[in-house]
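Hello support,

Our group uses your service weekly, and this is the first time we've seen a run hang past the timeout. The protein is Iron ABC transporter permease. I'm not sure whether the cause is the sequence or the server load. Input pasted verbatim:
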Amino acid sequence: MARRPAGVRTLWLLLALMALAAVMVASVAFGSREVPWADIQAALGGADETLGQAAATKRIPRTVLAVVVGAALGLAGAVMQGVTRNPLADPGILGVNMGASLAVVTAVAFFGLSSPTGYIWVAIAGAALSALFVYTVGTLGRGGATPLKLALAGAATSAAFASLVSAVILPRNDIAGSFRLWQIGGVGGASFERIGQVAPFLAVGFAICLLSARALNSLALGDELAAGLGERVAVARAVAALGAVLLCGAATAVAGPIAFVGLVVPHTCRLLVGVDHRWLLPLSALLGAALLTAADVVGRIVARPAEIDVGIVTALIGAPFFIYIVRRQKVRAL
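Update from on-call engineer: The timeout came from a worker crash unrelated to the input. Re-ran successfully.
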């Protein structure tokens, strides 16, 4: 892939930032009822007197949650693809999100977990164990961890974990209602309190992933060449993977298992800024935030006055893209 000039890459970053700002405004303005700009400004100033201002006040934390979760999933997907050199890598496809979901549901159903912070720790642990399991299964047999083997292992693991989640929830009427919508993945019911609880975990994950950009560039050259350049391959891969797992676990804990954002966004960003992770990672975060926020807006508009959860909208976008990637000839490695 041809190297993109720094000016072009900077332009794409600015355009992505502008697109994110636009969809954030749309997220506050549009829904079951439209809110004029004057009411949005009043809500930002703390007013909550009219129906429009009340709607805007409710939508602001929802918009912020969609932004941070979308950025986390987009960035985690780019890092996972870099760590595994797998164009099919995605937190949803590799079973990471569903592993986090199963861990949370199991802890709530059998161990009485009720602490919001506990949700996050358990989700991160489940995401890490799921990622390790899928990677181990994907390395079995000839050829090691090929993209197709990892994708198949992840898909099988996701299906198995989803069935286990249903098996745990269905007999428990006391938790079934609260987890049914969470299973689909969505940002409804957001609050700044929930965002504040997950923010430290996301901040650490963002920092680790962004600081791993140079190491991921070295890993893209191959393990032997990266080691020859002085890179500690195993450490670099483990640290970057830790950042991605933190992002996936925290995002799943607060918004449920949302798939395909981490698949669609990094591939789009490579077309725009190339394969240099110093540019790819921040752009993936921005476009991931924009995509998830836009998907939430679409889900609120197309089914007025009801809503379609954002996890369903992203699946409708991502599933055809996944099929396209699988059918490409050059799917063996990045």
